[in-house]
Amino acid sequence: MKSMASLLKVKRDDVSLMYIICYAFFVSGLMNTLVGTLLPFMKAEYEMSYLLSGAVISALQIGNFLALIISGFLPYLIGRKKSTITLATGIVIGFILMTLTGNPALLLIAFAASGVGRGVYSNISNVVMSEIAENKAASLNLLHAVFAVGALLAPFMAILTTVVLKIDWRVSAWALVAFELIALILLGRSSLSNTPGERTRGAKREFLRSGDFWLNSVILFFYLCGEAAIMGWLVTYFTELGHLSPALAQMTSSALWAFILAGRLLCAYLSTKMERTILLLILASLQLFFFVMMISVDSIALIFLSIFGLGLSMSGIYPTVLSTVEASITESTSGMGAIIAIATVGAITMPAVVGSVAQKGGMAAGLGTIAIAVGAMFISLIVKFIIAKRKQRTVS
Q1: In this model, does residue 202 exceed pLDDT 60?
Q2: What is residue 211's predicted lDDT score, i.e. its pLDDT?
Q3: Nearest-angstrom CA–CA distance, 76 and 270
Q4: Following DSSP, what letter does each residue of 312-380 receive, concatenated?
Q5: In the chain, pLDDT over 70 holds for what percent of residues?
Q6: Is residue 79 a part of any domain in this protein?
Q7: Do the beta carbons of residue 333 and residue 212 sit within 8 Å?
Q8: How far is the C-alpha of 386 from the C-alpha of 392, rounded, in Å?
Q9: I want to staple 238 with a disulfide (CB 3.0 to 4.6 A). Which of 228, 249, 264, 267 is the partner?
Q10: What whole-number distance in Å separates Cα of residue 118 and Cα of residue 63?
Q11: Residue 8 or 111, more confident
């Protein structure tokens, strides 16, 4: 049986770095879901309104956005290793702070700091894997599958501490801090460059003239609108609507990520067997269908069936879109940082929109607005498919 390094065509000298990057992205996934899982506990204990709850989720994405901007140029000043470790420390700071206070201003700072750590991992993990692996589509899907494993396990951490052991929800946050400290130590001992890089004059702006860059940024913008809002609000949605018990509501997040994990492994395989633009269209149409189904039913069986379909359909969109972006963009720290940063604006905006609508019209109305973003993503992928077909005809 082939090893992961052989499957992804990673050189022997880069195998250790590959595993370290995968672990760091695993911790990023753990953090990403744990925030949404712990939000109902913070909301109850700190007496947070829907508006504040939406604002802290958006603050997480604002931190993510800032990190993606900063990590586009900071490695050129102090090196990849130092910049990654510096920014990733935000996860430690943020999670400790959010367990200490319910002060709205400090909570916003805590979530933003955590988002900074999340953002640098998004940038460096995708860039490094694109550089060291020849099989890019499979490597990015498998990398994001590792992220999904962390995201899948996060709710179980919360359930173990709050339901099984019946202790404070903060223990889950402190456990995450421990995982992150290990990631920082491993990164410090990795082969990531520790010296400032040299940037070619004008390279920073070259990708901005690419239509491929802007179209894929738009697609990922709408995708992250949906992903961030769903991940941030899913547990709260099912908890407050009363369709599921608190324990089952917590499990919806794990169930979603379990199916995302399975879907990413499947998409890693399918991306080598079929045209990727067709695969993306199928995934987007199914995501729209199952999301509408999820917010339209109240049967437990149908809810989990819709989550099953939603997870599978969401799974491969982000990494597969990235795998179709021109190599000149994906292999550039500034280019990758820019495309993900633009997309992250969607992740910043949508959770706050959901919270604002929920404040006025209820949680069901708030979550329903996500269908608009998913529909817009589907339309954008139709445009991508048409352009790809025209290019094929031109070449032939």
Answers
A1: no
A2: 79
A3: 36
A4: HHHHTHHHHHHHHS-HHHHT-HHHHHHHHHHHHHHHHHHHHHHHHHHHHH-HHHHHHTHHHHHHHHHHH
A5: 91
A6: yes
A7: no
A8: 10
A9: 249
A10: 8
A11: 111
Give me the mean pLDDT over the 42-63 stretch. 88
Query: Which residues, in sequence order, are CB contacts of 249 under 8 Å at separation 6+?
Result: 40, 235, 238, 239
CATH number for 113: 1.20.1250.20
* pLDDT band at 68; cut points 50, 70, 90: confident
Question: How far is the C-alpha of 266 from the C-alpha of 278, rounded, in Å?
Answer: 15
pLDDT per position as a tens digit, 133-152: 776 667 777 787 888 788 88
Q: In whole angstroms, what is the distance from residue 27 CA to residue 376 CA?
A: 31
383 domain-assigned:
yes
The answer to the question of residue 32 being in a domain is yes
Total tally of structural domains belonging to the chain: 1
Q: Which domain holds residue 242?
A: 10-196+206-395
Which string of DSSP letters, residue by residue, matches 63-91? Answer: HHHHHHHHTTTHHHHH-HHHHHHHHHHHH
- Alpha-carbon span 48 to 102, nearest angstrom: 8
- Please say if the pLDDT value at position 203 is more than 70: no
Question: Can you tell me whether residue 101 is helix, strand or coil?
Answer: coil
Is 4 within a domain? no
Confidence (pTM): 0.73
- Of 345, 123, 56, the residue nearest 224 (C-alpha): 345
CA 211 – CA 309 distance, rounded (Å): 32
The model's pLDDT over 345-378, given as tens digits with 9 standing for 90+, comes to: 888 889 889 989 988 888 889 999 999 999 999 9
Output b/e per residue, 179-208; b: 16+ Cβ within 10 A: bbeebbebbeebebeeeeeeeeeeebeebe
Lowest mean pLDDT among 228-237, 323-332, 359-368, 371-380: 323-332
Q: What is the pLDDT at residue 338? A: 78
Tell me, what's the pLDDT at 288?
95
Instruction: Report the SS3 class of residue 31.
Output: helix
For residue 100, how many other CB atoms are within 10 A of its CB?
10
Taking alpha carbons only, the member of 121, 374, 29, 108 closest to residue 227 is 374
Q: Is 277 helix (H, G, I), strand (E, B) or coil?
A: helix
Least confident of 45-59, 165-179, 328-342: 328-342
Q: Give the residue among 62, 109, 61, 116 at the shortest CA–CA distance from 86.
A: 116
Question: If DSSP codes are grouped into helix, strand and coil, which group holds residue 208?
Answer: helix
Question: How far is 82 from 382, CA to CA, in rounded Å?
Answer: 41
